[in-house]
Design brief:
Layout: H1 7-10, H2 16-20, H3 24-38, H4 49-64, H5 66-108, H6 112-139, H7 146-151, E1 171-177, H8 185-192, E2 198-205, E3 209-216, H9 219-225, E4 231-232, E5 235-236, E6 238-241, H10 268-288
Antiparallel strand pairs: 1-3, 1-6, 2-3, 4-5
Helix pairs in contact: 3-4
Length: 289
């Protein structure tokens, strides 16, 4: 008989560990019921009826014999253990393959720190380009001529105190949009103090644009701050000199040449504000002396 046949199943009984616990009486009862079902007299039209009945009898003879049944139970136990080992091995193999695929994905995945650094560099690069664009745009706009500035009080000598005018080369014009984080005088002083002592900070605010005058202690500090102070990435600062350090000197016999036009950041309204602030700064500077 085929070694792969499960004799318990042929008799309609449970196999494996449960089948090994069956008594001879239970096996005999199952055989009688199955024999009535598969007897050739009950299946005259089945050509395999005789063969199937012989298989039933053979299975019953094996299970009825104590020694044969023990060997058969041992055979089933070995098959079950072998099947279990195969299942465990397949499970381990699948896990190894899964772990290997996961390591490969991790190896080829982008490093989050590298990605974050690249994103930071990209934003900083775009910010510098935007600041350059804004400066180039304002460079094409004119400002009042030197006589106009003097008529508004900017650059006049303080004759009342006998001192000289405030050095405009140390004064910086700062502007920003009213979006994101706003700037206070203390915050501006903190940002610009990295490039030298800050003598004063005066802020003028509006709903859409913020602006301020920052007075540095030295011209060198003002020059160092231009192009270096950016502020918050979400709300960058535009820093320009109040007056470029390129003013030409003229003798009393020479006619003054109209100075090169400089950036006009926020228009005449802001210029008037600058004038009033400069007068106050001049007076404060004379009092300190």
């Amino acid at each position: 008989m085929d070694a792969g046949v499960d004799h318990y199943l042929v008799l309609g009984l449970p196999s494996g560990e449960e089948g090994a616990k069956l008594t001879e009486k239970e096996i005999s009862k199952a055989y009688k019921l199955k024999a009535l079902e598969l007897h050739p007299d009950k299946r005259p039209d089945d050509p395999d009826a005789h063969s199937n009945f012989q298989k039933l009898k053979t299975s019953y003879e094996i299970l009825k014999d104590e020694k044969a049944r023990k060997l058969f139970d041992d055979l089933l136990r070995v098959k079950r253990e072998q099947q279990r080992r195969l299942s465990e091995r397949d499970g381990k193999r699948r896990k190894m393959v899964s772990d290997l695929e996961e390591r490969e994905r991790a190896a080829f995945a982008a490093d989050p720190s590298v990605k974050a650094r690249e994103e930071e560099e990209r934003i900083a690069r775009q910010l510098k380009e935007e600041i350059a664009r804004i400066r180039a745009m304002h460079a094409n706009k004119g400002v009042p001529t030197e006589p106009d500035l003097k008529s508004m009080g900017v650059g006049k000598e303080s004759t009342a105190t006998g001192g000289s005018a405030l050095n405009k080369e140390k004064v910086l014009k700062v502007s920003w949009e009213k979006v994101g984080e706003d700037y206070t005088a203390e915050k501006l002083r903190e940002l610009f103090s990295k490039f030298g002592e800050v003598e004063d900070v005066v802020i003028k605010g509006s709903k859409k644009k913020g602006s301020a005058l920052v007075v540095m202690a030295t011209k060198e500090g003002a020059v160092a701050a231009i192009g270096s102070v950016i502020g918050h990435l979400s709300n960058p600062l535009l820093v320009l000199p109040l007056q470029p350090a390129v003013a030409a000197q003229f003798s009393s016999a020479e006619k003054p040449v109209e100075p090169e036009k400089i950036n006009n950041l926020v228009g005449a309204g802001y210029q008037s504000f600058e004038n009033s602030v400069l007068e106050k700064l001049q007076k404060a500077a004379q009092k300190r002396k």
